[in-house]
């Protein structure tokens, strides 16, 4: 599924790197614990989280995660957004909760990152 | 086969610096990509390095990350000047953590870092002396 479709499904706002919306993704991982995210060995995934600090971006950078979806109206500071922009990570923000965000994406065919 | 050291880099890691924490691993990632190392191997190296770097930021008074790149492998030393780890066996257990509230707010403190470093590396050595230092040695082969 293209990120643009995810954006539409979640009524999400694009915080940076809008030009990446044509990127395809098949799996996602949801967590507020970077410890858990770092233990992932999945090839290609996107991250759903409520954690908006700079280390979320760092974690994504290390794991080659190209898109982060912030849930429940949480938005990072401008300097964090700028940092993600430089790192080539697309940031989306939705008002849905983490559970609902996951449910919508799962119903539309996105698999859990543990299954890829 | 040549086993010479091709390249060596060293980065200081500052205690409690959550803004710059991760920069050493990020720089290393850039370097490895430039050298054309396979991306899945780069990811393994960077996850191990980042976990080690953040442990220095979170748990220590500060230290450094040194990476030596050879033809066939990378050797990473993560060294800090204390406070050391009293019980390494306990620290290696998944879920064990003494991370501060600030570190937890940043998404750390799951007690997964050291086991993850071990899993990500081909060879892993940890030594520590209370009041003095903690030293990790991580070796990862390029194929
Ligand atoms: N460099 C270090 N200096 C002192 N103590 C350390 C160091 N690294 C790890 N420890 C101790 O070992 C424990 C386990 O470390 P580990 O990296 O596995 O988990 P964590 O850092 O607490 O959480 P996570 O890595 O999941 O964010 C730490 O909570 C800390 O008590
Ligand atoms: Mg850790």
Automatic annotation (TrEMBL), chain A:
Pfam family, one: DRTGG
SUPFAM superfamilies linked: HprK N-terminal domain-like (SSF75138)
All residue ranges annotated as the DRTGG domain in the record: 6-103
Top-level lineage group: Bacteria
Protein name: DRTGG domain-containing protein
Gene source species: Caloramator fervidus
Automatic annotation (TrEMBL), chain B:
Histidine kinase/HSP90-like ATPase domain ranges (all copies): 48-138
Transmembrane as UniProt keyword: no
Membrane-crossing segments per the record: none
A Pfam family that the UniProt record links to this protein: HATPase_c
GO molecular function, one term: kinase activity
UniProt keyword terms in alphabetical order: Kinase, Transferase
InterPro entries from the UniProt entry: HATPase_C_sf, HATPase_dom
Recorded superkingdom: Bacteria
Protein name as it appears in the record: Anti-sigma regulatory factor (Ser/Thr protein kinase)
Record organism: Caloramator fervidus
Source lineage: Bacteria, Bacillati, Bacillota, Clostridia, Eubacteriales
């Amino acid at each position: 599924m293209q990120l643009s479709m995810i954006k539409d499904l979640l009524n999400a706002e694009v915080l940076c790197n809008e030009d990446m919306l044509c990127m395809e993704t098949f799996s996602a991982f949801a967590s507020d614990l970077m410890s858990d995210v770092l233990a992932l060995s999945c090839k290609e995934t996107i991250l759903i989280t409520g954690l908006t600090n700079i280390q979320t971006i760092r974690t994504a950078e290390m794991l080659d995660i190209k898109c982060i979806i912030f849930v429940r109206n949480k938005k990072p500071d401008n300097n964090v957004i700028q940092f993600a922009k430089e790192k080539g990570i697309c940031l989306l923000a939705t008002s849905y909760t983490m559970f609902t965000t996951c449910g919508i994406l799962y119903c539309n065919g996105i698999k859990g990152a543990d299954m890829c | 086969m040549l086993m010479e050291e091709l390249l060596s880099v060293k980065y200081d890691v500052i205690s409690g610096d959550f803004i710059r924490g991760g920069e050493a691993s990020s720089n290393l990632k850039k370097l490895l990509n430039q050298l054309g190392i396979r991306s899945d191997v780069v990811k393994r190296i960077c996850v191990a390095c980042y976990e080690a770097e953040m442990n220095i930021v979170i748990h220590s008074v500060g230290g450094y990350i040194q990476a030596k790149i050879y033809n066939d492998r990378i050797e990473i030393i993560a060294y800090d000047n204390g406070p050391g780890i009293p019980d390494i066996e306990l620290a290696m257990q998944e879920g064990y953590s003494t991370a501060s509230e600030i570190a937890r707010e940043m998404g750390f403190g799951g007690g997964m870092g050291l086991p993850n470093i071990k899993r990500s590396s081909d060879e892993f050595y940890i030594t520590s002396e209370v009041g003095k230092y903690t030293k990790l040695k991580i070796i990862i082969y390029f194929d």
